[in-house]
Amino acid sequence: MNDQYQYQTQSQTGAGVAYDEGLRKFMLGVYNYMGLGLLATAIVAYAMMNNPELARAAQGTFFIPFIGIIAIGFIGPRFIYSSSPVVAHAIYWTYVALWGWLIGPTVASYTGAGMATEVYKAFFITATVFGSVSLYGYTTKKDLAPMGKFLFMAVIGLLIAMVLNFLIFKSGLMSFGISALVVIVFSALTAYETQMIKNMYHEQADNNRASIFGAFMLYGSFVTLFIHILNILGFMND
Question: Is 164 domain-assigned?
Fold first, then answer.
């Protein structure tokens, strides 16, 4: 009887260790893909910082990546889940390229004396905020799923507010307020997404494709946080 109990305990412990190791590798794959995406975006932004003509050309066509990002943001997850790994990679890297195209001119505008430090400061703050809330989403026992619908509606509302401010109001103060709300909403969204990605580990048979999906979600949240934190710092300095 004792031998049987000991065997069952060892089996359960071994399964738990295997699960933890598998989950760790899965999450590491997610963050690796995300990190490569951020590196690619940084390279594009750096190229525009050192090539004003390229930055001006990208700024003149900003509506193309903006529409592309919105479209992929809504339909991309479905295709990543249902298509082949090749298509999943194509969607993710297209998404990364469009973000680089969109935010490159904004980052390039911080090239004056002392202004470049604002970019590094914004990145450091973003990494700190993102890392903290992502860790919370990974470790918390609380079910964050009920937040999903509220956060989705909040993102839609903020997107509409940004478009209206850009086209009609053109208010710096409103832009600051929107950015502050974006930071709050996307911080919560990052925690929610991290928990969702963690739960996908034992629900998704194709972990490679699931890793791309996770990177797709977290990359978009990180870049959104970064650009709005940069906007807040710029407004405060002005």
Answer: yes
